[in-house]
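Input sequence (179 aa), recorded before submission:
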Amino acid sequence: MSRKGRMPIPVPKGVEVVIKEDHVSVKGPKGALNRTVVEGVKVALADGIVTVTVTGQTRTHKALHGLYRALVANMVQGVAEGFTRTLELVGVGYRATVQGRIIDLTLGFSHPTRVPIPQGIDVTIEKGTAVMVSGIDKQQVGQFAAQVRSLRPPEPYQGKGVRYRGERVRKKAGKTAKK
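Predicted structure, token format:
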């Protein structure tokens, strides 16, 4: 059994969890999320605490125990508080603006880069160089932040590019430093 999988998930006030056979629905002040649970993993709700147990004894079921516990916990946290990833644009002239459901990035290319914002994701800009991606689905928030970062990842010589807030970029010495 998974150590993480055995941990109970407390349900905060204002969050409603509905479990029907192999389907889990979580509704809260920020929105609602749904997920289908595979066969062999059972999710139960009792006294405001959600527990995930394994009914199958195969290696795959044991591996899915902690996964589904984490997925349900992220659903509960997402509808209650939400998730946020912050990206920083580092470089001369690098900036971002939001126009409707499109984020317009100037990343040192000869043209501006436009990225459509998916449904369920909110993007705000602070000081023109900090992009805050927020939403209730942790996977969707992380995926969109990674997509924006991949447009111009930080390069190791000058450190310019798009990086996560708090990310450390290891700089390399240039050719002249070897002499």
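Checked by second reader. The domain at 83-164 is CATH 3.90.930.12 (Outer Surface Protein A; domain 3).
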